[in-house]
Design brief:
Helicase, Ruva Protein, domain 3, two-stranded antiparallel sheet
Length: 188
């Protein structure tokens, strides 16, 4: 019996030590972890990891998110809600003016200035809209295609570019038939 008891006690000790080694969040850490974080005018859930959360920002790709994490020495698996205000400020500054190679920028050789810049957030959306307006104004091929609502990059126009622009050519039923023997009338 003593051997069995000692074996059971050892098993219970192993279970208790394995549970004790798992780092538990204290109440202070849980309280300071925020549920929603505002980052570059985007609301991001605090439970997301930093690396995929950065890609929720308009204009930030996986490459820029990876460069941000490595340049600022942030853990990619860390939760966004646990970031401090200073770390959020550093991330914002880095995304506005990243120190990465030019091929990662989303606006190479800007038309107005000629330099490589990286746009994010509403600045990117506005710049894209201005570019399309400029193409329409000078009546380039791409501008004409944008104005007509056609595919711009050489896709075929038979089927797949159509996205709910007009109501389909369906057949309408005039009314329900009361008897089974009657024929249904259709109107085109």
């Amino acid at each position: 019996m003593e051997k069995q008891k000692s074996g059971i006690v050892k098993q219970q000790e192993k279970k208790s030590t394995s549970i004790a080694n798992v780092p538990m969040k204290t109440q202070e850490e849980k309280r300071y972890e925020e549920k929603m974080v505002r980052l570059m005018s985007e609301d991001i859930e605090g439970s997301m990891k930093v690396y995929p959360a950065l890609t929720k920002i308009t204009g930030v790709s996986w490459g820029i998110a990876n460069a941000t994490c490595s340049a600022l020495k942030l853990d990619k698996n860390r939760k966004v809600g646990s970031l401090t205000a200073e770390e959020i400020k550093q991330i914002t500054e880095f995304i506005k003016k990243p120190t990465v190679p030019a091929f990662l920028f989303n606006r190479n050789r800007n038309l107005e200035t000629g330099e490589n810049i990286h746009l994010s957030g509403t600045g990117l959306e506005l710049q894209t809209e201005f570019d399309i307006k400029r193409l329409k104004k000078i009546k380039s091929y791409r501008g004409v295609r944008h104005a007509a609502g056609q595919p711009v990059r050489g896709q075929r126009t038979k089927a797949h570019f159509r996205k709910n622009k007009t109501k389909g050519m369906g057949v309408k039923k005039r009314g329900k038939t009361e008897e089974k023997g009657e024929r249904k009338e259709y109107v085109k």
